[in-house]
Structure formats: C-alpha cells, structure tokens
Write a structure and sequence with these properties.
Order of helices and strands: HHHHHHHHHHHH
Helix content: 55-70%
Structural class: mainly alpha
C-alpha cells in the first residue's frame, strides 16, 4: 500500500539485516533469541486438533497430518505476512511510542496512510482470532469432558453428559466459556496482572509438553505404542532430546523476557 499513498517502502537493509535493540541487554544475539519467544505463544496451537480425536475419522493418521498442515500453512503465511509488514513500516519509533493498545494499529496506519484503513485491517485480523477462540473453547470443553468421564472433576456426572439435542458436551462448553469470561475480567482491574497471567500460558504449556516428552525419553520410548508416524531407531531419540533441550532453553529465556516487559 505505501506505493499508493506516496509513502516509501522500508529498505532491504532494514527488513533483512538491521536489528533494533531497545531491551537494555548488550548482546544482540541474546536479544534476538528473546524476540523469538513471541512465537512461543503458539506453543499450544498445534495439538488442538488432537483433543478432538474422538470426533475425527482415522485419528491415528489424520491428526498427525492436521498438525503438520498447521505448521506448513502457518510458516508460509506468517513469513509472507511479516515481510509485507516490515516493508510497509516507515517509522519504527512511532510504533514503539504508540499510544494505541495494539502496536499493529500504528503499523497498519503507516501502511495505509489512514486510521480508517488501519481499522479495516485490524478487523480482518480480529475475525480469524474470533474463529480461533471458538476452537479453543471446543478444545478446552472436550478436555474437561474427558476428565469428567474419568471422575477426575467435581460434579463429574453432570459435566460428563452429552447433550441429546446438540450432540456435544454442552455443560462443559458453557463452564469453559464462563471461566474464560471471568478470567478476562482481570484486565479491568489490572492490565499488568492480566499480562502476567497471559504470559504464564507460555511457561505452563511448555512445562506440559516437557512433562510428557522427558519421561518418554528417559524410559527409552518403551511406554508409548508406536503409531503410523513412529520415528524408529536413533532418529527418534535425537528428535526427542533436541526438543527437550529447546524447551528448557525456552523456559530459561522466558524469565529474562519478563524483565524486559
């Protein structure tokens, strides 16, 4: 859009080579690693489809395919989106000092040259978020419903029921919706507390993956039944060990990232 409103594009050097370090740390490499943690907020996304296994045909084959599809589609679309955003950015200090709730609003304003254009693009970004929120509700409700069936929750008999009219665990869906709505009210009282609460999602989700993969590795991968995409031999150990090491680094960097906020 910059070529339409007469605003120049960002330079190739700014997009592909320059690094803006405003964290207070002297090591640019360390700051780059901290910046990569933004992607950690998607750590709970790839396995969402696995919680709907009972409602998918051929789950042992189709769920791994769905998870892989999320990675491939997400990588390609996110890369193209970031390249477009960087080239449309003409005033980085204005973004850093923006009074808008979302810095993305200032980037869109620079790209389109108008507040109306920025609002329109934000709406386009909000719609997929709304759809994703529905998916998160479904995932959380299925997880709680599964626990209720195993008598692992209070009032398990009530929440384990499948609604005969809607053909879904309606009670669990309503409960998860109420809990999420109540938790969102934290933002009204304190935005700092809400940010800390949301940020804990990265640490807690990472720990949940670590709690599953590390025992699997230490037990020499003997307690999980092989599936269609089982990695045989040493390749499986290498992948698991690499992932465990990456998760530990992610947890360590998360503590430093909180000091920069």
């Amino acid at each position: 859009m910059p070529h339409v409103n007469g605003i120049p594009y960002a330079t190739n050097s700014f997009v592909w080579r320059d690094l803006e370090n405003s964290t207070g740390y002297s090591s640019d490499g360390f700051v780059f690693a901290l910046g990569m943690l933004n992607g950690a907020f998607t750590v709970g996304t790839p396995d969402v489809v696995s919680h709907l296994a009972e409602e998918i045909t051929g789950p042992s084959i189709n769920i791994p395919k769905a998870i892989l599809a999320q990675f491939v589609v997400g990588f390609v679309t996110a890369l193209l989106y970031l390249i477009a955003i960087f080239y449309a950015l003409s005033d980085l200090p204005a973004v850093l000092d923006s009074t808008y709730l979302f810095p993305l609003a200032e980037i869109y304003r620079q790209a389109t040259g108008s507040a109306a254009g920025s609002l329109g693009l934000l709406i386009l970004a909000f719609l997929p978020t709304f759809i994703a929120a529905v998916g998160c509700y479904l995932t959380a409700s299925r997880t709680f419903w599964t626990l209720s069936r195993d008598n692992a929750t209070p009032f398990s008999g009530f929440f384990a029921r499948v609604n005969p009219r809607y053909k879904n665990p309606f009670h669990s869906i309503v409960l998860c919706s109420v809990i999420c709505t109540v938790l969102s009210c934290i933002y009204v009282g304190s935005s700092t507390a809400f940010s800390a609460f949301v940020g804990s999602f990265v640490v807690l989700s990472t720990l949940s993956y670590l709690a599953a993969i590390l025992p699997h590795l230490l037990s020499r991968r003997a307690n999980v039944a092989p599936g269609w995409f089982w990695m045989k031999g040493s390749i499986g150990y290498v992948v698991n060990a690499t992932l465990v090491s990456t998760l530990w680094l992610l947890l360590s960097f998360s503590a430093f990232r909180s000091l920069c906020l």
